[in-house]
Amino acid sequence: MSALEYARLQFGLTASLHFLFVMVTLGLVVLVAVMQTRYVVSGNLAYGRMARFWGLLYAINYAVGIATGLVMEFQIGLNWAGLSRLTGDVFGAPLALETLIAFVLESTLLGMWIFGWGRLGKRLHLALIWGVAATAMLSAFWVMVSNAFLQHPVGYALDADGIARLTDFGALLSNSALWFALLHTVFAAMTTGGILLAGVSAWRLRRAHRARRRRELAPEDHELFRRSLRLGIRFGLIGTFFTIGFGYAQFGPIGDNQPTKLAGGAKAVAQQAAMVDRFGPGDYLPSDWVVISLEAMTGIANLLFLLLFVAQVLTFRDTLIRRRWARPALWMLTVLIPVPFVTAILGWIVREEGRQPWAVYGLLRTVDAVSPMSAGALRWSTFGFTVAVAALAVVDWWLLARAAARTPGGEFGTGEESGETGEHRELREALV
């Protein structure tokens, strides 16, 4: 393999694995905020316990995800010097804002929320988790602003040395490659969070039904997972609907900004000829993997919507839990947990591989963006970075699995000092 191929492989592996953490983070934080809002508004203790239980999973994923983001930042700086040199003034500005928001503001608010249980007033504590959710969305926004520039460069001018300089920040924010893609990504994350919530809850409820083999859930824990199941299914269904809608909405801008990405047949031949006339000899058509990934992503998303719709119908009068004939749907929801991640990777392939052979479409070729490093050096760095990110992913899922299997209660150190024991007893008495 050449140095360019190793650099592309390294970025593809680290970026796609990091993206999986982002999907969980964006999806779960909104769900936790919704749970805590219901707790504060209604006073229902079940929602407070839900916010703590799922908030622990969110915090775990956020912490490990930050580490994978650092790995990705390092490899971008090391391997793509040409990209930074030519367009760093433009595409680096949104990334700098994202770093400030994610590493400073979002992390600070999250730390205050974690250590604020039982110490801060309920409304102030609620404001903190919504602040975390808002900064998480802002972080995603600035990343997508930067990525949209790579897809469709706007708001810049080349100086005398051929370096792109930012001239119109507003053009970056109104980029036609930005908004539908951003909404598509955000709702895909909500789908991921909803299915994770529903899948884990379904798993815990299935275990409770096998009372002879396992200790049955306490009434207050059964109520936690019953409500979580219903919320996760509803959230996943809504998220899938809008993910599909905003996915199809991108076809128009893509056709205008990147006419080679989805071109096929005679149109592909015509677009190839047009690109040769404009930019000189070269292969300007992306690989067949783009079309394959697009078709697979579309099919999976539509099937996922259908399955979630059926599950939503089965939540009527808790049929999904109470009726034996409906319980296989609980197993189905657990099996669905990895599906949004697979679909997200397929979407990432369509967006990023479909841009080739450009690092910045129509402005900088990928071969000119890579750092002047040997194939041997990139081979070892690819191995090292991939092992690091993969190890973090394994640790994350191991920690999430342990947290999901634990008995709810005592998250973030809450206990007697926060009145959890009293709440626990009160909820148990109300349910029994």
Question: What is the topological layout?
Answer:
Layout: H1 3-42, H2 45-79, H3 81-115, H4 122-151, E1 156-158, E2 164-166, H5 169-173, H6 179-209, H7 219-249, H8 251-257, H9 265-279, H10 289-314, H11 319-322, H12 328-335, H13 339-353, E3 358-360, E4 364-365, H14 366-369, H15 375-405, H16 420-431
Antiparallel strand pairs: 1-2, 3-4
Report on this model:
With 432 residues, the chain is mostly helical. Helix content is 76%, strand content 3%. The chain has one domain (3-404). The chain has 16 helices and 4 strands. The model is unreliable at 415-421 (pLDDT under 50).
Helix content: over 70%
* Rg, nearest Å: 24 Å
Total beta strand runs: 4
Order of helices and strands: HHHHEEHHHHHHHHHEEHHH
- Class based on secondary structure composition and strand pairing: mainly alpha
Widest sheet: strand ordering: 1-2
Task: Please give the alpha-carbon distance between the first and last residues.
Answer: 65 Å
What would you call the shape?
globular
User: How many distinct helices?
Assistant: 16
Low-confidence stretches: 415-421
Q: Mean of residue pLDDT?
A: 88
User: How big a fraction of the residues is strand?
Assistant: under 5%
The major sheet is characterized as: 2 strands, antiparallel
- Total domains: 1
